[in-house]
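yo, Phosphatidylserine decarboxylase proenzyme 2 is done. seq:
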Amino acid sequence: MAHDRAQAQTQTERRRLGDWLPRSERHLAKYRLDLAEKARERGAKASRNVVVDELSKLISGDPVLRMDLTRAIGEARDSGYVLGYESIEELMVIVDYLMTYAPPFSETSLIHCPLNAVLDWPMCMPSGYALFRDPALNAQLKRVLNCWCGFLTGPHSREHLTTDAPNGWFSREADQHIGMSQFICDPDKPYWGFASWNHFFTRQFRDGVRPVAGPHDSKVIVSACEAAPYNLQHDVKLHDRFWIKSQPYSLQEMFTARHRDVAERFVGGSVYQAFLSAFNYHRWHAPVSGMISRAYLVEGSYYSNADSEGEDPGGLNDSQGYISAVAARAVIVIACDDAALGQVGCVFVGMADVSSCVIDALPGQHVNKGDELGFFQYGGSTCCLVFEPRVIQRCLPEPRFDDQTPVKVNAQIATAS
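structure:
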C-alpha cells in the first residue's frame, strides 16, 4: 500500500450527483485505505463468503475478465488514484468485508455506496468499460449485491441506527440532513423501531407530509420520487445512440425488445428524468391515476459507465441517460384513467450498489395518483417518466437543471395537454 499512499493525488474532482459519494477525492482515497486495512484484519480471521469466492473464481478462470480487471486497476493507479488495493485478490478481500458492512453517517465523507467507492476509478478506465458490461460478471455481481442486501435486511445491520455522533443516523448532525420527524419512527424504541438498515433506508413518510398535487385533476402530473430534475427530452426515438456523450433516450432499450409494443407507444414522446439523493425518500409513487398494464424487472449492468463521458467529469453519476438503457431496473406502465394521457411509463433504475428494485403494484391493479408503486432497497438511483407524443403541455422544472434540490414526491412536475 506504500505505492498508494505515496500518490497524493491532485486529480480533478468528479461531479457526483445525489450525495451517494463525497465530492472530495481526498476523502474517498482515505476511505478506501481505511476500508482496506479493516478488510485485511477481518480476512485474516474469517472465511470468505461463498458469493465472493464465486466472483473470485469467475474472474481468475476467465482470461479476458482477469486481463481487463488487472489492467483497469493498473490504469487507475498509474493515473494517480489511491485505490487501497493493487491486485484482484486484494480487491476480493475488500469485497468480502463489505458483505457485512452497514454504512455509517458522516458529514464530510458519507459513503452510501461502498463497493462503488472501491471500484470508482477502475470502472471508468479504458479497460474497465468492457469489463463491467460483461454479462457473466454482472450476473455474479448481482449475487454479491443480493448477499449484501440480505445482510442489510437483517437485525445485525443496525449498528449505526443510534443517536451517537459522529456515525449515528439519528444524531443531531444526521437529522439536519434527513429530518426524521417527517417519517414513521419511534425514538423511544430500540433503533427507533427499525428492524434493519433497509427498513430505515426505505422509511415511510407520516400521513400528510407529502400531499398529492391536484388529486382530482388528471392534467396534473406529479413526481414519482423525491428526486432532483436531471433532463427533459422530447421527440424520443425507438432506437437511438444512448452510448454517445449526449446520451439520448432509446426506448426499445429502456423497455427491452420483449416489450417493443410498449416502447412503440412512446415514439415521438417525452422523457423526464430525475435522480435521487442519498439522504432522501426511496419509495416510488404513481404520477397519474390508472390501471397497471405492465410491471417487470429488467436484468442489467451495475457498474457500467458511458465511456463517452471519460474521466472528467466521468463516472456512473454522469451516465444517467446511458444507464436507463443498460442498468438493472424496474419498469411499470400505467394506462391512465384519463384517456387523453394514454399510457405513462415509469422506469426506476438501480445504480451500482443500489440494485434491488421491489415492485408493489402489479398488472391489473388500479392505482390513484400518489399511491405507492415500489421502492429501492439501500437507496435509489434515477427514475424516468415516459409520456406519449403531445401529452405534456408544460414541464414545471425547466432545463437546464443546475440545482440538485429534489422535487418532493407527489409534487406537480408537469401539466398535460
